[in-house]
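Structure in, sequence out. Go:
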């Protein structure tokens, strides 16, 4: 598949990721993790600026949603950068299993890092081991939706992309045979 198509598809995915985040949705059930993983697999290995696309999507949507504590934002943005890094790691061995593992790994890392940051940087929980456990415990419903959202949107994003690539490849084979 040519670079022009990939960049066009990525732009549409970026717009969709921002739009879905701005629409009413179940908390943490957004395509941003899937988008970051996709960018890591298909764009960031070829174009260094691909690393910035998930951060740009977050920033665009945050312009409308609103900004919050800079330390927490840095951790959230960093976790989406980690999704992209996971994508880069699996790009050479991309298959259904590695993509789904990358998606789940991103969700777990997001849960662990962002809730640790909430415990560390906010006054919501006591700065004790039991406070940290409480932070993780209260965040379990959000983790569930992050995981489900990431798996759902990863399946859609990667599935649609691979279907279009396969259709285009078979169409090109038919044209070459004619």
């Amino acid at each position: 598949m040519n670079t022009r198509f990939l960049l066009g598809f990525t732009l549409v995915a970026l717009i969709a990721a921002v739009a879905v985040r701005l629409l009413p949705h179940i908390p943490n059930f957004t395509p941003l993790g899937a988008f970051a993983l996709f960018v890591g697999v298909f764009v960031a290995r070829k174009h260094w600026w691909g690393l910035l696309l998930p951060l740009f999507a977050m920033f665009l949507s945050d312009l409308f949603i609103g900004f919050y504590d800079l330390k927490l934002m840095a951790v959230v943005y960093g976790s989406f950068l980690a999704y992209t890094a996971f994508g880069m790691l699996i790009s050479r061995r991309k298959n259904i299993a590695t993509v789904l593992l990358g998606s789940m790994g991103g969700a777990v890392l997001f849960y662990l890092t962002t809730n640790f940051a909430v415990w560390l940087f906010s006054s919501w929980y006591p700065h004790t081991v039991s406070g940290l456990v409480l932070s993780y415990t209260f965040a379990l419903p959000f983790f569930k939706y992050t995981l489900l959202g990431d798996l759902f949107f990863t399946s859609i994003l990667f599935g649609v992309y691979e279907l279009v690539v396969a259709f285009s490849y078979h169409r090109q084979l038919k044209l070459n045979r004619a």
